[in-house]
Design brief:
Number of strands: 6
Order of helices and strands: HEEEEHEEHH
Number of helices: 4
Helix content: 55-70%
Distance between the termini: 55 Å
Length: about 190
């Protein structure tokens, strides 16, 4: 019976790590005034009738801190890539010179920085909700195990361990958000 409790606790830890990883991916897409290839992650281009990730139809490079250069592998893909960037509404206007598409990141205003910080903390709140729902589901599993014959002391100990794992991951979420806030607010 304690083996099934250990499986529940291991599962909790793995699911919460996935929630943290998802948060890291989402906040890496929020630009902090520096050009990174992650800015264009999640943009899909129509490629021979199929939506395809931009990174699979073009080379994405960052030549300097304020520029992203996209070089399509096929010349005829410049138009669809340009349309996809505009449709993605990432706040950047593509500039096409016939063989490259360049995205210039303007310097961030104070107001825009504050909006980005709000987005970061919104993503952090989503991650906290995910972590808490994982905790709720796992505590329900422990209670089921208790009904199936697990002793009350072991069940309470399991719930305390789950709460400890939850607290650790909530602190991680807060730390990621504060780090990203510092990165965004640094001029």
């Amino acid at each position: 019976m304690t083996e099934s409790l250990e499986l529940v606790i291991e599962d909790v830890s793995n699911q919460m790590k996935k929630a943290i990883t998802h948060l890291e991916v989402e906040i890496s897409k929020i630009r902090a005034g520096k050009a990174t290839p992650q800015v264009v992650d999640g943009i899909y281009v129509e490629y021979y009738g199929n939506p395809t990730p931009l990174s699979q139809v073009a080379n994405v490079m960052v030549p300097d801190a304020r520029t992203i250069t996209i070089q399509p592998w096929e010349k005829n893909m410049i138009g669809p890539i340009e349309k996809a960037i505009i449709a993605a509404n990432i706040g950047l206007n593509p500039q096409n010179d016939g063989s490259y598409i360049r995205l210039f990141l303007p310097p961030l205003t104070e107001e825009r920085r504050r909006e980005l910080v709000k987005r970061v903390f919104g993503e952090g709140e989503h991650a906290k909700v995910a972590v808490r729902s994982i905790r709720r589901d796992s505590i329900e599993q422990v209670k089921k195990l208790q009904k199936d014959g697990l002793s009350e002391d072991i069940a309470k100990d399991g719930e305390a361990r789950i709460q400890g794992i939850t607290d650790k991951h909530i602190v991680l979420v807060d730390q990621h958000c504060k780090d990203k806030e510092k990165e965004i607010m640094t001029v």
